[in-house]
Fold each of these.
Amino acid sequence: MTMSTPHHAPDAPEKMNNTAPAPGPPGQLRRVSHPPTEAATPPARPLSSPFPSFDNRIAQFAGRWQMMIALIVLIVYLAGYNTQWRFTPDSAAHVIIAKNLDAGLGYTHHADLQKFLNPGVALITAATFRITNSHQFWLINLVYIAIAIIAFVLLYRWLRFYLDRGSATIVTMLCALTEECYRFAFMVLTDMPFFLGLMLALLGYERFVRKTRGKMIVGLIMLLAGIAIMGLFRSVVIVFIAALSIVMFIRIIRGPRRALHACLFAFALIGYLALRLFDPRAAGPDGQVMVDDDRIIIERLFQQFSTTMSELWHTQLPLLFQEGISEAALALDFGPIASIPVSLFILVLALIATRKNPLGRAWLIMLLLQILLFLTVIRYMLPAIPFFALGWWWFACLLYRKAGPFHGRNLAVALLAVWIIMNTIRIGDFIAEQHHWRSSEGWPPHEQRLQAITPPPPPTPPTPHPTPSHTTPPLPPSPIPNTP
């Protein structure tokens, strides 16, 4: 009966065999057994990781080639760069306000749209106009690519609190190579800067609550800065404040470190209120403009509750599961029937993968609830893509561990290939549009783009009709010829 060799724990001390090997014939090399080296053991998981501990060769490969993967992602993003403005109606409104700021006219819009737009995009666009001393877009396009790269670096640093080096690299790569993230890295809109603020706030929260040595103050500053960035670009920051409030309320009740979480919530709330007080829209003629978004939320939830629920069940919920989640993650519309199970599958995986991350799960749930209650648009799913990628990698690791070292590895690689290939095809189409290799709705004629950002001329007053100085005598009636 053969006995299997017992498996030693990575931290267990090895027993040294001090007995000398048996002597062999003269001239024959003796085989000496050495204890297993430390590199042969699987890497230890970070604290509170939802992933199983096993010898993941895919994660180890990604960890060894991390810099090469990062370089490939950077090259892909630089391949889509051009110096022209990618036109959208929302972007046109921000550009008009930026031009007015650059001209010294203040935060104004000729159609009075400034009270519906957060000032972040207009401020950074006006700053680039002032730096270049022209209304060209080559610098703001570079700024948006830099914002996207910084956001992915912050995402990687946040994932390192839960994942090992290779797994964090894979999830960051999956997120960066989605068509949704790639597209909005080249549009002068609020999506990518808001995503940067979200990643900064999540990273600051983890640094603060984990009491990293000498980094608590830095974590608090990062959290407040992330909330400020989100508030500058979108009013949806109130959803993050709500998710943070839920997590803090649970922590204060259950513990531990109740006082720490109470102080963190107080700082976050004070920072949000200070941001609203210094909103440049409050300096306009209607000082109550800064509470318009809050008023709309209250009306939708209380005064128009029946209408909101009817739209949720008949319009928003089908759009979320037929188009929103599946297209945001896999860049493909599977049809009205097949998209529903695919979207449910991706959402369930994201919720499972975030079970050790209370703030991430609360933010994901609150974001989807906000989308359902107000407007289901694919671009609003961008802050949820990192959690979809995290769930996708969790399922790949599950297949790898359950199906065996050979078949499991092949299944995991195939699953990652599905995500990457489907998004890369759409990214290739987008790069072709950026360089005008193919036509696109994002590139209307130059005259139409100029017309969108040029304010209409003021209406000319009507010319009064001259009043006659004398009365014109009536004409005599014309004679009627006699008829026979």
Amino acid sequence: MTNYNPKSQLKVGGKMSEEGVNKVGLRLANAVIIAVSLFGISAIITAIGCILK
């Protein structure tokens, strides 16, 4: 393996606005809801498949 040691680092300064933070939080919450829904549906389909087997 190769060690990566950059000679210069990029530092990003600044703060997000409250509106930006709200948008990011809302998108993250929506993504989690979608992921949980899909996992739940797949678990139900798997359970039905095992019952009918």
Amino acid sequence: MARTLHPHTEGHGDWLGRPQDQVFTVSGTASEAAGDIGALSTAGADTVVLRIVGAEPLSQLESVLRALGR
């Protein structure tokens, strides 16, 4: 999967100040994405940047934030 998504994540490490192997993607429903974000946090991530792709990005963001309890 990482190989497939590489064109979409390439370069993000540069502006985030992180090596490419520390750039991850999450997808799915809001609760699935929230679960993946929680797993990243549990694994030691201290920052997660959400970059919403697709239709109605604000609604998608709000759904993920609700699923995170925020």
